[in-house]
Amino acid sequence: MNSGPVSDAELRGFQQRGESGLPGHLGMVFTRIGGDEVRGEMPVRQELMAPNGFLHAGALVALADTCAGYGCRASVPAEATGFTTIELKTNHLATATEGTVECVARPLHAGRTTQVWDATVTHRESGRTLVQFRCTQLVLYPKK
């Protein structure tokens, strides 16, 4: 398992693969991806707002889940075929209406068959913690 950051070329690869999916649609940008830490950010935009005028909780969960998922992908054993999320929990502590939200995800447990990742999403401008997130990933292997 790799614990350090991926190379600049691999970081660009993660970013490019996400551009055509939800991470790109939401405007996520990743500044560090490794098995020991992932850092990503997302601008608060009108398209990401809930009907109540605040940043949609689902956008925050998507950022945290993507950071944890990219960290899992970067650290699974070479013989693994991938991973899937089997559980996630999110505590929403605050919200935002403008600026940028940042996420830092770190593994709590990085085993051969499961990984548990914790992520904290903060509002860059105020420094407020918006979300505490935890997910469990099941590492997948080829059938024998």
Describe the SSE topology.
Elements lengths: L7 H12 L2 H5 L2 E5 L4 E6 L13 H19 L6 E11 L7 E11 L3 E10 L5 E12 L4
Antiparallel strand pairs: 1-2, 2-4, 3-6, 4-5, 5-6
Task: Describe the overall structure.
By secondary structure, the protein is α+β, with helices and mostly antiparallel strands. 25% of the residues lie in helices and 38% in strands. The protein has three helices and six strands, in the order H-H-E-E-H-E-E-E-E. Strands 1-2-4-5-6-3 form a six-stranded antiparallel β-sheet. It is globular, with a radius of gyration of 15 Å. The two termini are 21 Å apart.
Number of helical regions: 3
Strand portion, in percent?
A: 35-45%
**CATH C-level name:** Alpha Beta
Instruction: Bin the helical content.
Output: 25-40%
Structural class by helix and strand composition: alpha+beta
Low-confidence stretches: none
- Number-wise, the strands total 6
**Span between N and C termini?**
21 Å
Mean pLDDT value: 94
- Topology as H/E string? HHEEHEEEE
Total number of domains: 1
Outline:
By secondary structure, the chain is of the alpha+beta class. The chain is built from three helices and six strands, in the order H-H-E-E-H-E-E-E-E.
Question: What keywords describe this structure?
Answer:
single chain; 144 residues; alpha+beta; Thiol Ester Dehydrase, Chain A; six-stranded antiparallel beta sheet; 3 helices; globular
